[in-house]
Design brief:
The protein is of the alpha/beta class. The protein has helices at about 40-60, 65-80, 80-95, 95-120, 170-180, 190-205, 225-230, 245-255, 275-295, 315-330, 340-355, 380-385, 410-415, 435-445; strands spanning about 10, 15, 20-25, 30-40, 125-130, 145-150, 155, 180-185, 215-220, 235-240, 265, 270-275, 310, 335, 360-365, 370-375, 375-380, 400-405, 420-425, 445-450, 490-495, 520, 525. The protein contains 14 helices and 23 strands. α2 (about 65-80) runs antiparallel to α4, α4 packs parallel to α5 and α9 (about 275-295) runs parallel beside α10. The chain binds NADP nicotinamide-adenine-dinucleotide phosphate.
Length: about 525
């Protein structure tokens, strides 16, 4: 039986922090949970970062097979936690056990996916340009490129995915896959879950004979722990999922360091959902119930929650709003992740209900407990949406805002007006393709993922997935935090010019000892 101790894991050691004492919280029963956790002081942050730095050179050169086996061992160790992990995550987050089991499957699958990528080695981007000594007017040197890891990465787990976007989530898995040691700042909303998963990683480090500094878990009782971590000179990049204010604060700190570092923060998105006239005509009922499910899924605590529904005003559109509203109202109240998130939701919904030009079309009913959240559907006009910037802000929870446009031109204007997004969805039929074609170039500039006739909640971990987008969806529109390309965030290219064969890394040696697909004089080949 695994017993929580409230300790941090600093390299191979478990240490009870003395800077402050804190507890996890059960948002359903409204009670503190055992055990007490000890928070890190600056000395422990320094120790974790220094260990990570000293592990870096040894870790980045372990054979790819050993690195892949390490990721798979973490997956095995997480699975071995069995119900203990699910029970604890359920207690701390109020998320249903079935959802958490699915999330565990995704977390483990993601680790195995990155293991397969590490073995295959395409991420190294091995590229060789042969020397051209006879070229005139100037000879070309021998040039070879490979990607190398950036160095130790700080990871901030997200509250809404205590497994898949937390201690062993996508940021950690992709950073470890890239060859970077990781120091995680545990999310205060799921401290016990964090300790369990961190121990699974620590055991994998030991079992695989890796340097202890490859992984550490820090606990903090205030912003100071995260600030000290991001400011530490050993840290070379940051992965974050959470609020816009948190992400911006960390990006600001990282930019002000003596040596600025990249921050990959996934922050805020309202995921515009365009219902075009043909879709409304042909699929009104199915679309309405699918949308109500998507808005309220997981109490709306998804970064891909459809928080903005854009349509051309019509009798059908009004009917659609009624059906979506009725379906949302039937969902009742549900407990949110934390009382802080629930409080912010209630305040934001009240503010929106009081905004001139906004109508509350439907609201859930039921006991409005301390951490409960009732669904709410709002309606406004495009002219109000275009002039009131606060209507474009994310409300984290089971709510959405319908924007009714007078015509196609106004719908296009709304598309132009929205901020950067993780996703944009087009609900359409073939007779809508002309309008959709006008929207496409706009949506490409706005979002990391464009969906046709689907719902944005649900993010596949695969080669082609993009979970990113222009600000404020993320702090860096060139990146994704989910999918194979997530590794790119923690790599940089190095070019080797005229190096003797003895000093070349294996990935770019003449005889291709790693059997990689490589670009050789502009041609992709396996030799
Ligand atoms: P958060 O407040 O941004 O916290 C996320 C992590 O960052 C925590 O570990 C927090 O730890 C740390 N942090 C936040 N601000 C910091 C600062 N100024 N300096 C250093 N560290 C900082 O996010 P949350 O608690 O998960 O949720 C709050 C809100 O975030 C939600 O209401 C929602 O709007 C949004 N959210 C968005 C997403 C998304 O997917 N985009 C996901 C979850 C939440 P400390 O508090 O201990 O410093």
């Amino acid at each position: 039986m695994v017993k929580l101790t409230g300790e941090m894991l600093i390299g191979g050691r478990a240490i009870f922090g003395t800077a402050a004492r804190l507890r996890a919280f059960d948002p359903v029963r409204g009670v503190d949970l055992e055990p007490v956790f000890g928070a890190a002081d600056v000395g422990l942050v320094n120790r974790a970062c220094t260990l990570a730095e000293s592990a870096f050179d040894a870790y980045r050169i372990v054979p790819l097979e050993a690195r892949a086996a390490f990721l798979e061992q973490i997956a095995e160790n997480i699975l071995a936690l069995d119900d203990v992990l699910i029970e604890r995550a359920h207690l701390e987050s109020a998320l249903p056990k079935a959802r958490l089991e699915g999330e565990r499957g995704r977390t483990v699958g993601q680790l195995r996916f990155f293991a397969s990528l590490v073995r295959e080695g395409r991420w190294l981007s091995a590229t060789l340009d042969s020397a051209m000594p006879e070229r005139t007017p100037l000879p070309r040197p021998d040039l070879r490129l490979q990607k190398v890891p950036l160095g130790p990465v700080a990871v901030f787990g997200a509250s809404n995915f205590p497994l898949a976007f937390s201690v062993a989530g996508g940021d950690t898995a992709s950073a470890l896959a890239a060859g970077c040691p990781v120091v995680v700042k545990a999310h205060p909303a799921h401290l016990g879950t964090s300790e369990l998963v961190a121990r699974a990683i620590q055991h994998a480090v030991q079992a695989c004979g890796l340097p202890e500094g490859v992984f550490s878990l820090l606990i903090g009782a205030s912003n100071e722990t995260g600030a000290a971590l991001v400011s530490h000179p050993a840290i070379r990049a940051v992965g974050f999922t959470g609020s816009r204010s948190g992400g911006l604060a960390l990006a600001d700190m990282a930019a002000k360091r003596w040596e600025p570092i990249p921050v990959y923060a996934e922050m805020s998105s309202i995921n515009p959902f365009f219902v075009l006239p043909g879709a409304l005509e042909h699929r009104l009922n199915a679309l309405a119930s699918g949308l109500a499910d998507s808005v309220t899924l997981g109490v709306g605590q998804f970064c891909t929650n459809p928080g903005l529904i854009v349509m051309i005003d019509s009798a059908k559109a009004r009917q659609f709003i009624d059906i979506v509203g009725e379906a949302m109202a039937r969902k009742g109240g549900q407990t949110m992740l934390t009382s802080g998130i629930a409080g912010a939701y209630d305040r934001s919904v009240d503010k929106r209900a009081g905004t001139e030009g906004v109508r509350l079309a439907a609201a859930g009913s039921g006991p409005d407990g301390q951490a409960g959240a009732l669904p709410a559907l709002f309606v406004t006009s495009a002219s109000d949406f275009l002039t009131k910037n606060e209507l474009g802000e994310e409300i984290f929870g089971p709510t959405s805002l319908v924007v009714l446009c007078t015509n196609e031109a106004q719908l296009v204007e709304v598309a132009h007006h929205v901020e950067g997004q993780l996703t944009c969805t087009l609900q359409m039929e073939p007779d809508d393709y002309a309008l959709a074609g006008r929207l496409m170039p706009i949506l490409e500039r706005k979002a990391g993922r464009i969906l046709a006739n689907g719902f944005p909640t649900g993010v596949e971990v695969s080669h082609a997935m993009v979970h990113g987008g222009p600000y404020p969806a993320t702090s860096d529109p060139r990146s994704t935090s989910v999918g194979a390309s997530a590794m790119e965030r923690f790599l940089r290219p190095v070019c080797y010019q005229d190096l003797p064969a003895e000093l070349l890394p294996a990935s770019v040696q003449d005889d291709n000892p790693l059997a990689l697909w490589r670009v050789r004089n502009g041609q992709l080949m396996k030799n």
